[in-house]
Amino acid sequence: MGARKIARKVTAKVRSAASVDKVWKEAEKAIAGERKKRERSGETFTSVTRDQYVEKLKRVKSPVIIGNGWSNTAPPSGTINYSVTVQNPDPVTHVFLAVSVTIGNRNPIVSNDEFLTTWDTRFPTYAKQSPIGFSLGPGATTTISFSIRIPAGVEKTGYFGNTVLQQIDFHDVGTYFDRACFFFEVV
Description:
There is one protein chain. The chain has helices at 2-11, 17-40, 50-59, 112-115, and strands spanning 44-47, 64-70, 73-74, 79-87, 94-103, 126-128, 134-136, 141-149, 158-167, 175-186. The protein contains four helices and ten strands, in the order ααβαββββαβββββ. With 187 residues, the protein is of the alpha+beta class.
């Protein structure tokens, strides 16, 4: 574990205040657009604040999740619409990116290994963009959308959705970048 922490510190990017301001302005525009779109359709929308964004850039490998929106309720056999907004704050293009979504109460789990290995198996798991992921150029932002099917017979209660942004490595271990959470109710 100690070696892992050291490696992470060594690979952390040092960003100038000017470069952070530049990518934050792009993130802020994308957030405002998504917020307007999601709230207009009655969805919940959450996003990072500037302070959270700055902290995220210090601890998370790039790219990063900057916002997500979702419909609040659905009956059994219905669907929850979910979208996640991703930004690349780096001066290089990232390729083979993918977003995966699972359902289960895992938001407070600190260990990414544990977070990534358990979920509520009554719900399907989702991943996009197949077959080789998506690319995100320098400073670019994209929103990935999902329709999450609610299985028949599940309890009428609240459920956590968990989102992971990762880079696919087709011949070795992929790279975990960031994660987010959303909360909906089956009615």
